[in-house]
Amino acid sequence: MKSTWFHNAKQYEFAKKVCMAGVYKGMRPYDMFSVFLEASYLALRQQAHMFRFGQQDDKVEQDYLRVIKRAPNPSDLADALGLLCQNLQESPEDFLGTVFQCLGMADKEFSGQCFTPYELCVVMSDMILGDVKPDPDHRLTLSPSNIS
Fold first, then answer.
1. Relative orientation angle of helices 29-53 and 9-20, to the nearest 10 degrees
2. Exposure string over 78-108, b if 16+ CB within 10 A, otherwise e
3. How wide is the angle at C-alpha 65 spanned by C-alphas 68 and 86, nearest 5°?
4. What is the rounded distance in angstroms from the CA atom of residue 109 to the CA atom of residue 117?
5. How many CB atoms neighbour CB 132 within 10 A?
6. Does residue 113 register a pLDDT over 70?
7. C-alpha distances in angstroms, 66 versus 36, 95, 145?
8. What percent of the chain stands above pLDDT 90?
9. Per the count of CB atoms within 10 A, which of 33, 37, 59, 113 is most buried?
């Protein structure tokens, strides 16, 4: 993994954490990325459950422990989740999709997914919308024949 694959140093640091969490077991980055996503989901779900009901959900806890055992260095996954949250607060863009692309996981071998880079989305929306600004009291709809 090279830092030049990433346009953002923060995304590179995140990817290093995720990939290094499984390097000792020889896991592929795609596998560790999947473990990261599942473990993060379960950790956040458990927190939401505790907030709502005041106690842990034993099933979620068992699932979390099962998933986290797949990572030889789970503290790297916790660090990666912290980096993800911090970066999403600073810039609400498709952080995970960009990292997925930069790690080369979007090819046919892994799933054939493709994510449009955030900068390209901004350019396209600026070209389509121009000076039109959304009105919070009305829904903005776009179609080839009109912009309303």
1. 90
2. bbbbebbeebeeeeebebbbbbbbbbebbee
3. 55
4. 21
5. 11
6. no
7. 13, 26, 52
8. 34
9. 33
Is the model's pLDDT at 74 over the cut of 70?
Answer: yes
What's the length of the chain? 148
58 with 45: CB under 8 angstroms? no
Q: How far is CA 131 from the centre of its chain?
A: 31
Q: Which amino acid is at 93?
A: E
CB 42 within 8 A of CB 63: yes
Whole-structure pTM over 0.70, yes or no?
yes
| Alpha-carbon gap, residue 104 to 89, rounded angstroms | 25
Q: Which residues contact 64 (CB under 8 A, 6 or more apart)?
A: 39, 42, 43, 46
